[in-house]
Each structure stands twice: as C-alpha cells, then as structure tokens.
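Regression test case RT-17, inverse folding.

Input:
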C-alpha cells in the first residue's frame, strides 16, 4: 500500500484567475492505494457524504483511468468539498502521485499536472490546473497553456471557510465574458506585483497584488458576509484579502504576528452575519508527499 498526503490549495489569488495557485500547509487529503483489477473508492472525513464513490464521478477515478492504473483507493478528506480550497484537486493530485508510484509509471510531478487536471474537468467542466499544480508541486504556481512555473515561497495566510458551499461549476457561471482594457491593465499590474512578492516572501507585495476588478467582485457577491469579513481581516492587519478559489472560502495574506488575530476577526465577522466558520492559520506550503507503507 502507498499513502500520499496532498495539500489543500488556494487558486486564483484574485489577480491570477485560472492561473495562480498556492499549496497550503493545512488542511490536506490523505490517499491510500493498492493494486486491484478494478478501481473502487471509499471516502471518509470532511464532507465525505457529499462526494460520489463511483469512479466515473470522482476525480480520483478519472486519474486512475488516465494512468491506466486500477486500484482500491481510500480517501480521507481533510479538505471539505466546494469550500474554495481545492478539495477535488487535492484528491486528484494525491491519486496521481500515488498511482504513478504504485504502477511505476515514472512520470515527473510536472507530467502529472495534466493528468490530475482530468479530474477537475470531470467536476467543473474545464481542466484548469491552478489547483492541481500547487498540490503536486508545492509553493506558488503559475499554470498556463505553455506549462507550469513554480517557486517555493513562505508567506503566512489565513483561510476562513464558512459553513456554506459554492460549487465551482456555479461560480464559473458568474465570471464576466469581457473586461475593459482599463481593468485588464490594472489586473496585469497586480498579478505581476503578486508574483514578485512570492519570489521575495513579501506579504506586503503579495497582499497588494491580490486586487482584481474583473472576477472577484462577481464571485464575492455569492458569499454571504464577504464584505464584512474582508473589512475585519484588513482592520486586524491583513495585507490583502480575496475569495479563495471559487469560494466561499476567504483568503487573507498577512505577517505571521498578525495571523491569529486575523483568524479570530474573520470568524467573528462571519458569526455576526449568522454563519459558522472555521479558520486555518497556515502558510504557503509543500506539495504532495509520498509515503511507502510496505
Ligand atoms: N475526490 C473528490 N474530492 C472532493 N470532491 C469531489 C471528489 N470527486 C468528485 N468531487 C465532487 O467535486 C465537487 C467539489 O469540487 P469543487 O471544484 O466544486 O470544489 P472544490 O474543489 O472544493 O473547490 P475550489 O476548486 O473552488 O477550490 C463536489 O460536487 C464533489 O462531489
Ligand atoms: N480557477 C478556478 C479554481 C476553482 O476550481 C475557478 O476559480 O473557477
């Protein structure tokens, strides 16, 4: 049996819609695989009751198919589905690493990115790689049609998840089809600022670079309490706040010394809106880790 711990991720980071992503130190999915004549899936953990075990409908089934690697797959969900932390992608990335090793396919982590993205196509209709790339490679990733660029980074973060859910498929429905040149120019500037900030481990630059006037305003309108939570995080010292992935999770960038206070302020603001939430005090972290259990 092989075991993989595959981290949650936060995609988009505001200005990098469908392109930027970071691996988070926590939470994570744990995937266990054993060779079998046919793929079967069992699921435990956060939100497991909402996830299909049919391999045709589960992201890990799509990965097993793409790698021609049938297996008994056990998923222990640490990443709650439809919360904005790349739940479906964590399972897909974990399965890709585990099955690649189980069947000695010899593919590199970069080569596994499009394979894990097959799972994302299954659940959201498009094979975007901005969650699977950081879950596989760790750090900060820039996923484009030309491939993935990765840098290790160490930037403190708070990911606050309300007890509500937004499906990626629905959230993609509100993304504007066009944008003004002014907004595009503005977003390019912020995206470049964010990328430089990641290379310097600079929370000020990363926080400033989250700003986006194209997708985030439409997405944040789907999240009850978002404006109050954002305001509370900024008042508590966050250097920037945005929607995590497709939402409803909210991501704050900060200095380490402010992280605890920001987590509390965000949860209090959701609470004042009548919504329970959970905050992860975390940081940009490593990619999927493989354990050989013997
Ligand atoms: N292994 C899996 N883990 C989690 N969700 C899965 C898995 N396989 C299929 N799904 C389905 O995918 C959907 C969740 O994916 P979705 O992209 O909406 O959320 P997410 O991955 O948590 O969010 P985001 O991409 O915004 O960070 C649910 O409908 C769930 O049933
Ligand atoms: N880039 C994707 C990430 C969520 O899966 C989106 O925002 O729709």
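Golden output:
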């Amino acid at each position: 049996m092989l075991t993989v711990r595959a981290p949650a991720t936060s995609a988009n980071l505001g200005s990098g819609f469908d392109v930027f992503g970071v691996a988070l130190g926590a939470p994570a999915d744990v995937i266990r695989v054993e060779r079998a004549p046919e793929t079967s899936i069992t699921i435990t953990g956060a939100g497991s009751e909402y996830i299909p075990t049919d391999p045709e409908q589960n992201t890990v089934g799509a990965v097993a198919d793409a790698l021609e690697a049938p297996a008994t797959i056990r998923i222990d969900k640490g990443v709650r589905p439809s919360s904005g932390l790349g739940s479906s992608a964590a399972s897909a990335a974990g399965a890709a690493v585990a099955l690649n090793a189980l069947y000695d396919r010899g593919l590199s982590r970069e080569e596994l990115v499009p394979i894990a993205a097959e799972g994302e196509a299954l659940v959201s209709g498009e094979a975007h790689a901005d969650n699977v790339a950081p879950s596989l490679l760790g750090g900060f990733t820039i996923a484009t049609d030309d491939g993935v660029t990765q840098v290790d980074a160490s930037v403190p973060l708070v990911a606050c998840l309300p007890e509500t859910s937004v499906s990626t498929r629905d959230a993609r429905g509100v993304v504007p089809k066009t944008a003004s040149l002014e907004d595009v120019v503005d977003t390019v500037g912020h995206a470049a600022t964010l990328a430089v900030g990641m290379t310097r481990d600079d929370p000020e630059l990363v926080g400033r670079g989250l700003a986006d006037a194209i997708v985030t305003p439409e997405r944040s309108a789907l999240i009850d309490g978002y404006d109050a939570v954002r305001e509370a995080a900024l008042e508590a010292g966050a250097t920037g706040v945005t929607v995590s992935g497709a939402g409803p999770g909210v991501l704050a960038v900060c200095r380490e010394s402010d992280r605890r206070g920001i987590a509390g302020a965000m949860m209090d603001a959701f609470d004042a809106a009548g919504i329970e939430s959970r905050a992860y005090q975390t940081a940009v972290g490593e990619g999927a880790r493989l354990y050989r259990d013997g």
